Amino acid sequence: MEGVKGKVVLVAGAATGLGAASAHRLARAGARVVVGDLDLPGAERTAAAVRDTGGQAVAAEFDISDDASVRELVGYAVRTYGGVDAVHVNAGDMGAVRHDTDVVDIDLAVWDRTLAVNLRGHMLVTRHTVPELLARGGGAIVYTSSIASFTGEPQRPAYAATKAGINALARHVASRWGREGIRANAVAPGLILTPAIQEGAPPEMLRNMLARTRSPRHGQEGDVAGMVAFLLSDEGAWINGQVINVDGGTVLR
Ligand SMILES: NC(=O)c1ccc[n+]([C@@H]2O[C@H](COP(=O)([O-])OP(=O)(O)OC[C@H]3O[C@@H](n4cnc5c(N)ncnc54)[C@H](O)[C@@H]3O)[C@@H](O)[C@H]2O)c1
Questions:
Q1: Is there an atom of ligand 1 within 6 Å of 144 CB?
Q2: Which residue of 48, 56, 99, 236 is most buried, as measured by CB atoms within 10 A?
């Protein structure tokens, strides 16, 4: 994908899973990647693996729920590569999801943590990167949403609310800064077989999720990474404010 070659791309939440896949995909296409994560050893592993395959990447520790930490991460990207052209905001607190029961039962600390990381954190990354994108004459942001923002489920109310909030955030950013050259979109994956999900998900759950798709197989990390790279690239120049499902046809809308 020629359209990200030479661009500086910050992937916020890229130690493992979808963010790490995105870092690899973007670097393969010639982007210079800043791998940010709460898990510094994981971020360093991702960046080292990118470099081992001939790509350019650096790692940095940050906490997406902390305003000063996010500001420092963006500053690090600017100091390292001279600016920021694109961002994949991906971090999610996947530990909290296990305790995200229903709104009567949920521990309010779980609700607050989920919103702090999955939604407020995505807003903080936006807040600190928009001025940098404007300084470059524009740029692109992609958020990782989820089909949970559309489907309605008996559990995971905090998770679903944050993902619906992310969809609104993308629409806001597109509406506020689109004419100044900033594009903001969200990808809404269905179940993606990351290594963690392959190890941890009960087989029955995997079977049920596959039955909800219109696909012969489960989602793979590369399915999402390909869409992220496209949306961040110049090829995606006329796509703004959209939420794009990458879910094997689970949700049709
Ligand atoms: N895997 C799926 O099936 C799937 C489906 C839909 C949406 N998603 C979304 O994709 C994103 C990535 O999920 P994943 O499955 O790859 O899980 P993952 O746990 O591998 O990735 C999440 C990353 O976010 C990081 N992170 C967590 N809290 C952080 C914080 N406070 N500050 C900075 N980084 C932090 C983690 O360390 C990790 O690297 C999440 O937003 C998730 O909601 C995943």
A1: yes
A2: 236
